[in-house]
Amino acid sequence: MTYKSIFTVATQAAEVPVTIAAAAQVCALWDGHLDVLALGVDRTQLGYAYVGAGAVLLQVAQERAEEAARGVAQAVRAAFAAEAPGLRAGVEAAVTQFGALTDLVAQRARFADLVVLGRPYGKDQGGEEEAVIEAALFEGRAPVLVLPETGLAQAAPKRVVVAWNQSREAMAAVRAALPLLKQADQVTITVIDPPVHGPERSDPGGMLCQMLVRHGVRAEVTVLARTLPRVSDVLQRHLRDMSADMLVMGAYGHSRFREAILGGATRNMLEQATVPVLMAH
After folding, report:
1. Is residue 97 one of the residues assigned to a domain?
2. DSSP state of 140
3. So what's the pLDDT on residue 253?
4. Angle, CA of 142, 24 and 70, to the nearest 5°
């Protein structure tokens, strides 16, 4: 498997250069094609409008969304022009209401080998960035490479940390990341506080390591104690200690509602990611 169809969604012109540059690196490495959806989001909520204002609000919101989509598409084309001439890429401008965003993104993400997106949390981020990532993961069933603010240093990471907790989400992420793992110089399977009575209690991460080694991956296992309040904090410290270039992990082992209210490893990592995170569900 290689990444031939790369997909990204652009909702803000300011973030386009970093995302397109990263996606272009992935395309160059795998001789892939980049598809970009330039999205204008209509945030109209007519339920809160006074009687008779519906048609006016709809028209104004539609025009604003169309203008936003055109602006983002223009920024995408400018970013294309800044890349190497050999980049095969296309952009489609579209307008959607917030409630219909999931279906629109998922329909396109479903046919992508890899979705490249910026970090969804930050002071200038709206709710659509989080909705885009969740649409790609849950409805599109596509692996998502989430970029930090600094973008992608290199398309083929040399040192990769795999967060392993025996879940189906973690295994989906590993399988999706296999082309990258095979090219890495070092892959560290990281297990944090493995369950005493779990199926891998005698050899945490051992079976995964064996599988990856058979694929030619230079893998090893590291077992860590949960010495910090959150699993994400332990992972962040481990990423720094290993000078890792990328993290591979399963996404949303708990429900999205629970993670939104109570927190969770997925949300916490996306909030504080300093290296690219490849996720799958």
Report:
1. yes
2. S
3. 62
4. 85
* The two three-digit tokens of residue 240, written as one number: 């720094």
Considering its fold, how many domains does the chain have in total?
2
The neighbour count for residue 111, using CB atoms within 10 Å, is 11
CA dist., res. 273 & res. 85, Å (int): 31
Q: Note the pLDDT tens digit of each residue in 195-252.
A: 777 677 778 999 999 999 999 999 999 999 999 988 899 999 999 999 999 999 998 8
What is the C-alpha to C-alpha distance for residues 97 and 131, in angstroms, rounded to an integer? 12
| Paired sense of beta strands 159-163 and 246-250, if any | parallel
Helix (H, G, I), strand (E, B) or coil at 276: coil
Domain annotation covers residue 154: no
Domain harbouring 165, CATH code: 3.40.50.620
Give Cβ neighbours of residue 200 (< 8 Å, ≥ 6 apart).
Answer: 166, 194, 206, 207
The kind and range of the H/E element at 137 are none
Say if residues 39 and 71 touch (Cβ distance below 8 Å): no
Nearest to 163 by CA among 234, 59, 70: 234
273 pLDDT band, cuts 50/70/90, is: confident
pLDDT, tens only, 116-150: 999 888 766 667 888 999 999 999 999 999 999 89
Q: Is the residue at 116 inside a domain?
A: yes
Cα distance from N-terminal residue to C-terminal residue, the chain: 18
Asked whether residue 53 is domain-assigned, the answer is: yes
Average pLDDT over residues 31-48: 83
Pair (125, 190) in one structural domain: no
> Which domain, by its residues, includes 176?
159-280
For every residue of 229-258, DSSP letters joined together read SSHHHHHHHHHHHHT-SEEEEE--SS-HHH
Residues 251 and 219 both lie in one domain: yes
Mean pLDDT of 86-104: 93
Are 67 and 191 in the same domain? no
